[in-house]
Design brief:
mainly alpha, single chain, flat
């Protein structure tokens, strides 16, 4: 090990000291983002981690693995919001069947018109 490696190791150990670690993800401008990743990737990873920590005891392991493996941020956010809504409903006393019926009977919004057909008047 060269002296430069030893200095780098000492700096890394000092940064990893729990007293020096700031456990906040709010300072996005201060994040060190590894090459090949974007802020959105990191935000999605944080969201998935918090979801897994919070609901790992309620969701079967194979389903949790499937959710964690999904790379579509919008779909992951939709799943997380549905699970959180279901948890709120069950906390209010609804049965599992009532929660499922509520999700099935919720009307979906029609997608916005637009695109080439809209512009051409079709």
């Amino acid at each position: 090990m060269t002296p430069d490696d030893a200095d780098e190791l000492t700096m890394l150990q000092a940064k990893m000291n729990p007293e020096n670690v700031k456990l906040s993800y709010a300072d996005k401008d201060k994040r060190m983002i590894p090459e090949g990743l974007t802020e959105e990737d990191i935000d999605l990873a944080i969201l998935k981690g918090e979801f897994e920590r919070k609901y790992s005891k309620l969701i079967p392991e194979d389903l949790m693995k499937t959710i964690m493996a999904d790379e579509d941020p919008q779909r992951v956010k939709d799943i997380i919001s549905h699970v959180e809504q279901a948890a709120i409903m069950t906390d209010k006393g609804m049965s599992a069947d009532q929660v499922i019926d509520a999700f099935k009977n919720t009307p979906r919004n029609k997608q916005a018109d637009g695109g080439l057909n809209y512009l051409m008047g079709l």
